[in-house]
Amino acid sequence: QVQLVESGGGSVQAGGSLRLSCVASGSIPSRNTMGWYRQAPGKQRDLVASIASGGSISYADSVKGRFTISRDNAKNTVYLQMNSLEPEDTAVYYCYSKGGFGSRTYWGQGTQVTVSS
Predict the structure, then answer these.
(1) Which residue, 55, 47, 51, is CA-closest to 34?
(2) Element (H, E) at 37
(3) Is 73 left (phi over 0), alpha (psi -120 to 50) or beta?
(4) Which of 29, 37, 42 has the alpha carbon at shortest distance from 101?
């Protein structure tokens, strides 16, 4: 089992910044991928960014150049720095962790990000 606890959500005006953090605990695989999904009301949950334990990173096109994902393996923590926020970024952001092929995906409880125009 892996437990994920997110923090850092909140309300900002367009153009502002927020930093999300997600701390993992429990039986964490040595090789895993962590990252963030988001879900706006009435929409599906979409991948925002991911980072593998080896450092490989990917972003959704909609956040490239504005969001930066990073991780501290010693602290089992993944971060999402969000700059130039737009109202379209408003959503509940979920941290996730997944081990190798066929392994289970673990989810955090979600943290609300609200961007006002």
Answers:
(1) 51
(2) strand 33-39
(3) alpha
(4) 29
Task: Answer left, alpha or beta for residue 102, where phi above 0 means left and psi between -120 and 50 means alpha.
Answer: left
Distances (CA, A) of 48 to 1, 27, 40: 24, 24, 12
| DSSP 8-state code for residue 104 | P
Per residue in 50-93, pLDDT (tens digit) is 999 888 999 999 999 999 999 999 999 999 999 999 999 999 99
Interatomic CA distance for residues 70 and 29, integer angstroms: 18
Residue keyed to tokens 């993944």: 78
51: exposed, middle or buried (Cβ count in 10 Å: 0-12, 13-18, 19+): buried
